[in-house]
Amino acid sequence: MDYEVPKEFGFTEDKIFGWVMENEEFCLYVLRIILPFLEIKEVVEFNKQDSLGNDQREAKDIRLDIKVVDKDGRIFDIEMQTSPSKYLGRRLRYYQSTIDGAKVLKPGHDYSELPDTFIIFLCSFDPSEAFSKVNNRAVHFFKTIDTKDHALELKGYY
């Protein structure tokens, strides 16, 4: 007898995704698989459905599916994306700016105090329409780079 699991009970469904990812050991495992070069040791903060607002009343708020902070102070935002959009890159950019905006630097403080931030979009669709195709890879890393001669790279983390 074949039994088909209803779509609303799949891993991509918001509540199920949150329920599975709130297991901190599993969440740490996922981060280590996706970003092995970071050698993430320990999670010190974990939030599910963390809302970040903007001081401007008309600005759009964001809700982070899973927000993790490791012992080195790095912030990881893990998002489940189920709706294809050619504006996925802009969404990522907005999330990045809102996360950065939540950390207020006081006058005289240095930009080095901003934590390294990693936004991970787990897509239930092929996100390639939102990005230029270079090759067929499951994981993409983005940098801010001079598009004219590619000689200058703006580093966002060190």
Automatic annotation (TrEMBL):
It comes from the Bacteria. InterPro entries: RpnA. It holds the Pfam family PDDEXK_2. NCBIfam families: T_den_put_tspse. This is PD-(D/E)XK endonuclease-like domain-containing protein. It comes from Lactobacillus gigeriorum DSM 23908 = CRBIP 24.85. The lineage of its organism: Bacteria, Bacillati, Bacillota, Bacilli, Lactobacillales.
